[in-house]
What does this fold into?
Amino acid sequence: MPREDFEQFRRLVLQDLSLQEQLRSTTDMPSFVELVVRLGEERGHRFTAEDVQAAMAASRRAWIERWI
Amino acid sequence: MDLQLLDGWIPIRIYWQQSQAMVDWCYLGTRRFNESFFEQTIQQCLWQPFNMLFRHQTPIETLAELQEAQPGQSPSGFIFHMSRCGSTLVAQMLAALPQNIVISEAGPIDTVLRANLRDPRISEEQRATWLRGLIGAFGQARDGRERHLFVKFDSWSILDMPVIQRAFPETPWIFMYRDPVEVMVSQARQRGSQMLPGTLDPRALGLDFATAQQLSLDEYCARVLAAVCEAATQCYRQGAARLLHYRQLPDAVWASLAELFGARYTAEEVERMRDVAQFDAKRPALAFAKDSAAKRQLATDEIRALADRWVRPFYDRLEALNDSGGATDAEEP
It folds into this structure.
């Protein structure tokens, strides 16, 4: 399932310093999302740009709602 | 987890997953806390898409593990204050020097200090342990120049001084204050969240919930300021702490405070701090100007009466304890 695939990839990134460095170097959003999808696919994780954007929105909401 | 994975990461949020307290971490790398407030630095970092999407989430116990494995910089000094009295200016002056880590009103600290309001079973000892771990994480070396760590607390945090001193009994601290009329005028113009009933536990102010809701906003403000100043008078011990009046700024930062905090500044560093003091600490594009006279002129009779009734007794006590000798403010016209 794409969402679980993305979460597995997220966990992979958080353990892999070279992947983190690669992802941090791209700061414009469309290129970043494209890179996340590509790097995920290269490592056997299949998810779409929409899945990445949904995850981003969830992270943003968690930060905004931190006082609630 | 492998704690080396947290090198360069900072706790930005404490939250609960069912009953487990969790830490949300953001990567800062070597970025310093240059902005006026912790949240502003974090917000800048979260604009980076990597930082918004990829954040470690760990149990809060990881903080203690990290502190055990990599103790980090111990805090050199704490800044407490009654609000709107120059505390942000002091923090910014200290932050101007690259050897200083300055954490200003960090949300995670407030969450930990007031965790018992969320769950009364969370003990004072537990909060102190979490606070030690949190400040230990903030004090990690990230750019290699760090020698001092300063923490400026939210103005209401002095009400939790027993927890803070349990965690850090040896850390020197200052309490910053100002004429209560001037503070109340500032708060009336733009209210801090703590000045709205419902943010703080009214029992800490000697009020019940119903009474707190019925007070005017100015009276509620006076009661909050009174509680904060009263706590400062009760906690103050000569030698371990210092009281700093707004009128003593900015020179006190590189003079008496340096001695208290065990810091030594070169002439160049003093000049850098003096430069920062020329600008409004909260709005750095604007020049700083002491505005005591202007604020006193704007005060309504009600504000004066409320300040005198609730806050003045504690303000007078602070003045008596202040070992500056009550130097006058020579810069006001």
Remarks:
- The beta strands of chain B are 9-17, 20-27, 57-59, 75-81, 100-104, 148-152, 173-177, 241-245.
- Chain B touches chain A at residues 2, 5, 12-13, 15, 24, 27, 46, 48-50, 52-56, 107 (CB under 8 Å).
- The first strand of chain B starts at residue 9 and ends at 17.
- The two ends of chain B are 60 Å apart (CA to CA).
